[in-house]
Every structure is written in structure tokens, then in C-alpha cells.
Amino acid sequence: MSTPDIAQLSASQQEALQTYTSVTDQDPIAAIPLLQRCEWNVQIAVARFFDGEPSSDPLAEAQAQLPTASARQTTNLQYESLLAATRSSSRTPRANPEDIVTRVDTSGTVNEPVYRPSTLFSIIFTPVSILYRVFTTVLSPFGFLVPTFLSRLFHRLLYQSQSQSRTQRRALPPAENARRFIREFSEEYGAEGHDGESSAPLLPFTESGFNLTLDTAKKDLKFLLVILLSPSHDDNHSWVRETLLSTQFKSFLDSHHSELILWGGDVRDSEAYQVSTSLQCTKFPFAALICQGSEPGSGSPSGAMTVIMRAVGPTSASELVAKVATAMTAHQAQLAAARAQQAERQATQNLRREQDSAYERSLAQDRERARRKREEEEAARKAEMEAQEQARLAEKRKRDLEQWKRWRAQSLPGEPDTDVKDAIRVSIRLPSGRRVIRKFRTDAEMEELYAFVECYEVVTSRESENQSPEDDVEEPEGYEHEYRFRLVSPMPRTVFDLEKGGSIGVRVGKGANLIVEPVDEDDEDEHEDED
Q1: For residue 326, which of 114, 45, 3, 20 has the smallest C-alpha distance?
Q2: 134-144: per-residue pLDDT in tens?
Q3: What is the CATH number of domain 415-450+476-530?
């Protein structure tokens, strides 16, 4: 037998081969003969791969029993129907409005099933119930004659079977319901696993409510596999052990844990009961695969969560794995496109955030530069205003000083005559180097000597121009004069400062040679320290 060539297969056959190999991990060359024997039906091929091929081919036996004239036509029709089924299963179906899954209402209490008495029990107790009602209705006015405990006892016996048959389950929040289901599932099937294993084969059920799990699967673009169990169903126990806890199903879950979320529920709970109603569950056990549906006529996701596979009733592990894997493979392309779109949107959002952040930083830097510029301009304006103010004050001080000199010069007494015996002769060397000799009265204050030195230029200019003393010059208003020099005797050095006061005769003596020393602020500080 020649080795089959994959390139010679049609597009639908190659797609069926890819779906089959993704589920079974079988070599494609070895998988082609099995798919050919199964008429390229992926589900039949997967079931035969896991369960083994039957000893006889049912399709071949059925074809052999048909008349010869229509055998070729029947075979062609059968092949075309199988090929159409494979193509329809491989393509993404349009979302049926009934398959769209919405959030369930979890605000109510537990929806317990109504337990009714059996038919035989109803037939036996129907006459008794009728007689009791007639009796209580007719004799109700005389009810006080019947002991109360007899009525209560009869009523308790009548409805005892119903109260005992009713199963009570406490209402819990969705997350607590999920954890209770996992705990009960582990306690029921964890002690002894499949094939008598002693370890507890737990399944990776999520510990959150259905609504939150549905939102997570929608946000993360994952598949959601919902398992609904009914403990009152006869096939529930065997299906869990032979299908859910089988090595094949657990291996499938482990290999797809990154793209598949498993959620389970007990229909005795309110949330699971509402989920079964929303998923149109008609028989237990029940499994449904949910993912984002696609828009009709396009591969783009519609955003609505849709049921893409249902497994109703007892199914084998291989059949369940084949159905789930086929549905997942058929919708992988649209989820991959959705993930790419989501990644592109996320990248665009990140880029926009980075651009906004860079713009904000640039704007903050511009604002900081503008603020610094305004502060610098304000500081320069203030400095200019202060300089102008200082210049104005200096000019005013200069004018006030000149006015004060003219005012003080007009009050200086003249030099004593030569025939005055108590006159004191004082020689003064000015900062310009010029020596001035003048007589002062003995009782004259030291301030008069300082005033003469300060107003010397005004006095000499007035004397040189033969001007009479000014009597109309007033003292500058608000001006306090401060002498910026001191008189010092060089040999020995003696400072005749003005602060100590006293008369010239007492401080200077009968005569003295004085030097005018300008006073700076540093000199004043040093002089204060010496004092």
C-alpha cells in the first residue's frame, strides 16, 4: 500500500485531518487511513481511536444489503452527507439566539424541586384525605370538643412521608455554592478514584460563581466547560467515575488548562438550577462548552457568550473529549483573532497612555519653565524697583544732607576774636589732606566741632563768595543726620567720639592736632567691640 500524500487531500479533508491530529496527537500519515475508513468524520474517527475499531464495519454491512443498482448512488449520498457534516462541524456555526448565554439571577433562594408522593401512596390516601377534609369542614364548629393533639397527630401522620422525602439545602452565595459543590464532589468521589486508585482524582473546578466565571471567560477569551450533575439521576454516579474521572478526560483538561475553565454545579442549588434552565438542559448528566460567538457571515467575535457544544445524557470519555476538542478546534481561529484584536487594543491603549503621559510631562515641564520665567521676571522687576528705590532714597538723602549742611552752617557761631583768652586753637586735617586751623570757645560742645568739619565746604564757599549766612533754610523734615567720620589725635592716638559728649575744652584741652577719619560700618562694629 502506497504512503498517502497529504498534499493530494482536499481542503475539507486537510481541515478534518488537522482537527483529528490536534485531539489525538497521532501522526498525520497514520491518521489518514482511519479517517478514510470513517468517511472523514472526525467524531467517529476520534471515538474509534480511543475505544478501538469494531470487528465489522456497520456502514459496509448496510451497503452490502442494499440492491446493486442503487449501491453506488447510496454510497455517494452517504459520503456526501458525511463530508457535509464534517464541513459544517469544522466551520464556525452561526450563533443561534437560543444558544446565547446570559448572566443568571442569584438573588433568590434555593429552587428546590417539588417532591410529590408516589402514585400508589396517593391512591391509598386519597379517600382518607377526602374524608378528613369533609370531617373538618362539617364538624369545624364543634372543633372544641375534639382534643387538639389528635388533630395535630393525624395531620403529622398524613404528611410525614412528604416532609421526610423533601431534601433541604441551605441557600448560599454563588462562591460558597461552588466551594460546597467541590467539597461534596471530593468527599463523594475522592476516596476511591477511577480503576480503584487510592488517590483523590480532583478536577480543576473553579471556586467562583457562574456569573463571575462567565465574565472571566469572556474577558480572557477562554472556553468555559459547564458540568451539571443531578445526584437523583441513576447514571450520575457511573458517569462521573467513568467519564469525568477518567484518565483521558483529565489529561485533556491538563493539556488545555490555559484556555479552558471548568465550572460545575449541583442542580439542587439555586444557581446551578438557573444555569440548567439558561442552557436548556433536558437530561442529566449535562455538559456544555461556551465561548464568544461570531457575527453572522464574519469571523469577528460578537461579544456574546454562546453555547457551541452540548453533551446530554451519559457519554463515554472518548466521545466527550472528541466533542469538546472538535468544538474548541472549530472556534480557535475566531478566538485567536479576538485575542489579536484585544492585544492590539491593549497595545493601542498603552501607547495612548504613554503618549498622554509624555504630553503631560512635557506640559508640566513647559509650565515649570513658564513659572520659573515668571518668577525670574518678577524677581528682576522687584530688583529693578528696589534699585530705583535705593537710588531715589540715596538722591533724597543727598539732597537732605546738603540742605542739612546749609541749615546747620547758618547756626554755627563765628570764630572767636584773638583777644578772647578762653579760646582753643584746634588744627584739623581733612580727608583731602588739607589742614584747617580754627579757634573754638572752651565751653563749646563737641558736636559744634563735628558740625564745623561737616559743613566746612559750605562755610568756606560762603566766605569765599562773601555771602551772608542763610536764615531761611529749614531743617529737612524726617531727616536724622549721622556723622560718617570721627576726630582722632595721632600722638598719642585718642579718639574724640561724639557719643561721649562734653565740651571742647574738657575733651581736647587747650589745643590739639586732629585728623578726620572716615567711618565705615566695619570700623563702627570694631569700635563698638572695643568699647
Answers
A1: 20
A2: 766 666 665 55
A3: 3.10.20.90
